[in-house]
Amino acid sequence: MRFPRKGREMACTAAQLRILGFLTKSVAVLGQQGGQIGQALQGVLADGRLPVSDLQPAVVPACVLMPGLLLDPRDPLMQSLADCVDDLHWKSPGFGRIPDAVSRQMAVVEILGPDGMFVHQRVRLGVLLQGEHLLYPNHKHLAQEVYHVLSGRAGWSVDSVAFQPREVGDFIYHRSNQLHAMKTQTDPLLALWAWWGDIRSVSYEI
Ligand SMILES: [Fe+2]
Q1: Which residues fall in a coiled-coil region (predicted)?
Q2: Residue 72 burial (C-beta neighbours within 10 Å; 0-12, 13-18, 19+)
Q3: Residue 3 lies inside a defined structural domain of this protein
Q4: Among 57, 83, 153, 180, which is most buried by a count of CB atoms within 10 Å?
């Protein structure tokens, strides 16, 4: 487990402003859902004192899929992701606990959170990329979670129920400790995600 980096006051580099543009739109899209995620995100960006970490742009092999997914942004949220995609600190998902054969076909960025590019202790928010023809097997965590599909499609299984198709624009919620799995076919999946509640990484199990 990597501990949060000591933050500093929000800087205004061009890259940070591009990332903040995507973060602001992401918070708006998820916050408009209301309910618990709306409450969790309320005030996250309000006080203008969000610390930035010193995480630098980074890629993992699965990022090779990204240009194709961002070629023709369909809305302002996707455009803002396209604008900052090269500024993001991409890494393997699952806190190092996903089998290598799976995780090397995936990428994640934590934009906001204890391990994020912008530091926050109550919410994690980021983007997940899952390559095509890939099963991200059943996993769970104490944090409550929402996914919002940005590109592609996947079968989604919650509580070990049969995979249901999920497509662009869909929101998928997971309760605390609820088993979930995602299975792609011909298309990669690109999705916005957020955690709230008990967001400690130690509870992640796969
Ligand atoms: Fe999850």
Answers
A1: none
A2: exposed
A3: no
A4: 180
